[in-house]
Amino acid sequence: MAGLGLAAGLGGSGLSLLTGCSDGKVSGSATGATFPPPDPSSPWWMQGVFAPVKQEVVAHDLPIRGALPPELSGWFMRNGSNPTNGDSEHWFLGDGMVHAVRLENGRATTYQNRWVDTPIHRAGGGLMSAGPPGGPVGQSNVSVVAHGGRFYSLGEIGWPYLIDPETLSTRPTDFDGALTTYFTAHPRPDPITGELHAFGYGLVAPYLTYHVVSPTGALTYSSEIDLGRPIMMHDFAITDRDAIFWDLPVVFDMSAVSQGALKAFKWRPETGARIGVMPLGGPTSAIRWVEVDPCFVYHCSNAHREGDEVVVDVCRLPSAMTDTYDDRPSRIERWRINTAGPELTLSAETLSDMRMDLPSIDRRWSGRQNRFGWFANAVDDGPGGAVQLPGITRLDTTTGETDSWLPGAWLAAGEGVFAPAGTGEGEGYIVAFVTDRRTMASSLAILDAMDMRAGPVAWIDLPQRVPVGFHGAWMADA
C-alpha cells in the first residue's frame, strides 16, 4: 500500500482540476490543462503513465538537456508499484520496483530498474501468492531510504530489504534478528543524533511497535504501543524530543478480507480519533493522547517543538477508505499540541487549501523548525477515478506563499525529492521523474528548489518509461 493522500484514497470523487498559483490561491485554470481520461475497459493504474513496465534495464551515459548541477553527486532512487504478472487489485498493490539514476560530476552515468526480490515477486505476483504478509513476505513497493551506509527498500507491512546500489539486487533484513514485528515505509531520521526512528503496524497484535535504529544501522529499541485495535497508520512524526503517532479511524476488518485486501480497511469515524505524544527514544508507556476530529493522514511534512507545544504539519483528508471512495484531496494542516498540563490540548489551523500531498522537506531539518515544504499537486481527473499529479509546489509555511511548477497536461510529474546543494534550508534542487503522455518517454527533471516556477534547469532522458509511483530519496555521496 502506497498510502497516498491523493484525490481519492482508493477510487476517485470526480473533482475538478485544482492546482496552485504563486500567490497561494487555488485556481482551476492554473495549468490550462484537461487531462486525457483513462480507457474505461481497464483500471487506470494499469494504463498510460501508470502502466507497469516489463523489462529490467541498465543504461549508461544518459543524455542531458540543460545544465546538470555538478554539485549533485549521488543516487536518486524511487520505489513504486509494478505488478510482476501484469495485473493488480489496485495501484497500491503491485510488486515493488526500484528505479535509480546515478549523478556524478555533472554527468548522469547510470539508469537502472529492478524488481525487489520478495517471495511475492518470485511467486509471480499477487498479494497473497506467498502467504500472509509479514516478515520477508511483503511487496516492498512504497519507499527507499539510506541510513548507516545502507540502502533500504520499504513497504507498508513486512521487513525492509537491503539494496545494493550498484546492481539494485535486494535481500530482506530483520536487523540480525532484532526486528520481530513490522517496519514502516516512513522512518524519520534525527539529523543531530544520526538515529533513525520508525514504527510498524500490524493487522494482528501487537498492533503498533516503535523502533529506534542506531547511526550504524543496528535496531536498538523496539517496544509495543498499546492501541487495542488494528488500524492503518502510514506515517508518523518526530521532534528533537518527541515521537508523534495518530490513531485514526481507518480500521482493519478481518471479516472483510475475502472482498479484497484494501476492502478490509474501513472508515469508522464513530470509533474516534486521537494523537499521541511520547518521549523520543521511549519509553512507549509514557505516551499521552489527545482527541482530534475524525480525519485521516497518510503523510506528515515535518514536526518541531516550540516550548511546551509540539507542532505537526500534515496532509489532512476528511476521510479515507469510505464505502463510496468519496474522499477529497488533502489540504495542509498544522496541529499544535500543548504538553504543559496534566492533559494534552490540541488546536488546528489550515496552512494551505491547495490540494497537495507527497511532501518533501530538506531532511537536515527533520524534527526541527523548518520553513519550506515541497508537495505534489493532487488532482482527481474524474472519469475512471484516475489520479493526476500536474506539478510540484513549494509552500512557505511562514508566509503561506507558494511557488509552483505546473508543466501542463501532457507532462505527468511525481513526487519531488529535495537534494541539498548548500548549507541553508532550501539551498538545493528538487528531483522528480516526469513522463510525457504523448510519447510515453520519461526524464529525470532537476529544478532549483527555491525557484520552482522557472522550471527544470536540466532534464535527463531515460531509456524507458518510469511508471508514476510512490516515494523516492536522494542519497548523496558521503
Net shape:
globular
- Structural class computed from helices and strand pairing: mainly beta
Question: Tell me, what is the CATH class?
Answer: Mainly Beta
Task: Predict the CATH topology.
Answer: Methylamine Dehydrogenase, Chain H
In the CATH hierarchy, the architecture is: 7 Propeller
Query: What integer value in Å does the Rg equal?
Result: 20 Å
Question: What is the fold's blueprint, element by element?
Answer:
Elements: E1 19-20, E2 26-27, E3 58-60, E4 64-66, E5 74-78, E6 97-104, E7 107-115, H1 119-122, E8 143-147, E9 150-154, E10 161-163, E11 170-172, E12 188-189, E13 196-201, E14 208-213, E15 219-224, E16 237-238, E17 242-247, E18 250-252, E19 265-267, E20 274-279, E21 288-291, E22 296-306, E23 309-317, E24 331-338, E25 345-352, E26 356-360, E27 372-377, E28 379-380, E29 387-388, E30 392-396, E31 402-405, E32 411-412, E33 417-420, E34 428-436, E35 442-448, E36 456-461, E37 472-476
Antiparallel strand pairs: 1-2, 3-7, 4-36, 5-6, 5-37, 6-7, 8-9, 9-10, 10-11, 12-13, 13-14, 14-15, 16-17, 17-20, 18-19, 20-21, 22-23, 23-24, 24-25, 26-27, 27-30, 28-29, 30-31, 32-34, 33-34, 34-35, 35-36
